[in-house]
């Protein structure tokens, strides 16, 4: 049986990329709900319906585990999804805990970059309240990065001016760690690094999620001897056209070529 990965768009491929590193012999289904991307700026109940429709579809494919490779979808629906399905469901959330631990001794702040909906959710606020004892966590929604990614626009000359505008009100020297709280954002790691001082760590929850997936499969004796084969789906239909398949595989190559995001988890 395959492992399912779900996202509103292509952001979840950044998490799938990490899973392929830690679990190269598994086979995968990747489902992108491209008809409804982006989730981060839509009403919560509307997004919940999209998520449950997508997971119903994936469950009918016979998956053995599911990774909600979307911070917004995790914050909205992961608890209810776990109540409905009997296979393991892993979510992803902004890596606030390791970021705070990394900054407390440095007298630096943490900046969480995410979608508007993730930052509004009670799940995120409870996470920050539980961990941020010294009030060092700040946040900023960057919906434009989702749009850039979905349009396969990764050129720094396009992305860097957007980032400079959005970050213009922040004193970037105050920050010790930047948290990429949306799975679309690791595509822009190099552009983000150009904006912040060199000693700022940039982290994501993707690596921790991939490691956790491996632990769960091992604990459940569900490890497979596959080939790393991936079936791609877009909003209920299997992707079969060569152009789209090539574009998705090129994203995995792009992530391979990029310098690794700092691992603090």
UniProtKB/TrEMBL annotation:
Keywords: Cell shape, Cell wall biogenesis/degradation, Isomerase, Peptidoglycan synthesis
Active site as annotated: 70 (proton donor/acceptor), 182 (proton donor/acceptor)
Keyword Cell wall biogenesis/degradation attached: yes
Record-listed substrate binding positions: 7-8, 39-40, 71-72, 183-184
Pathway, per record: Cell wall biogenesis; peptidoglycan biosynthesis
GO-annotated biological processes: cell wall organization; peptidoglycan biosynthetic process; regulation of cell shape
EC class: isomerase
Pfam families given in the database record: Asp_Glu_race
Molecular function terms, GO-annotated: glutamate racemase activity; identical protein binding
Known catalytic reactions: L-glutamate = D-glutamate
Enzyme Commission number(s): 5.1.1.3
Cross-referenced NCBIfam families: glut_race
Family affiliation: Belongs to the aspartate/glutamate racemases family.
Role: Provides the (R)-glutamate required for cell wall biosynthesis.
Name recorded for this polypeptide: Glutamate racemase
Species name: Heyndrickxia oleronia
């Amino acid at each position: 049986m395959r492992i399912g990965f779900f996202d509103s768009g292509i952001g979840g491929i950044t998490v799938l990329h990490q899973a392929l590193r830690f679990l190269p012999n598994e086979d995968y289904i990747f489902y992108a709900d491209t008809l409804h991307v982006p989730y981060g700026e839509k009403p919560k109940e509307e997004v919940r319906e999209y998520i449950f429709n997508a997971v119903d579809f994936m469950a009918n494919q016979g998956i053995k585990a599911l990774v909600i490779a979307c911070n917004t979808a995790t914050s909205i629906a992961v608890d209810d999804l776990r109540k409905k399905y009997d296979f393991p469901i892993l979510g992803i959330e902004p890596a606030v805990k390791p970021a705070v631990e990394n900054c407390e001794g440095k007298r630096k702040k943490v900046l969480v970059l995410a979608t508007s909906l993730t930052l509004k959710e009670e799940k995120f606020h409870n996470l920050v309240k539980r961990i941020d004892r010294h009030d060092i966590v700040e946040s900023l929604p960057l919906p434009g990065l989702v749009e850039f990614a979905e349009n396969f626009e990764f050129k720094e000359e396009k992305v860097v001016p957007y980032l400079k505008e959005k970050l213009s009100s922040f004193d970037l020297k105050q920050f010790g760690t930047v948290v990429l709280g949306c799975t679309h954002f690791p595509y822009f790691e190099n552009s983000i690094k150009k904006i912040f001082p060199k000693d700022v760590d940039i982290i994501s929850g993707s690596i921790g999620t991939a490691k956790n997936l491996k632990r769960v499969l091992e604990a459940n004796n569900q490890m497979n001897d596959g080939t790393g084969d991936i079936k791609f789906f877009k909003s209920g239909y299997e992707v079969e056209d060569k152009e789209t398949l090539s574009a998705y595989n090129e994203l995995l190559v792009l992530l391979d070529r990029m310098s690794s995001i700092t691992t603090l988890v």
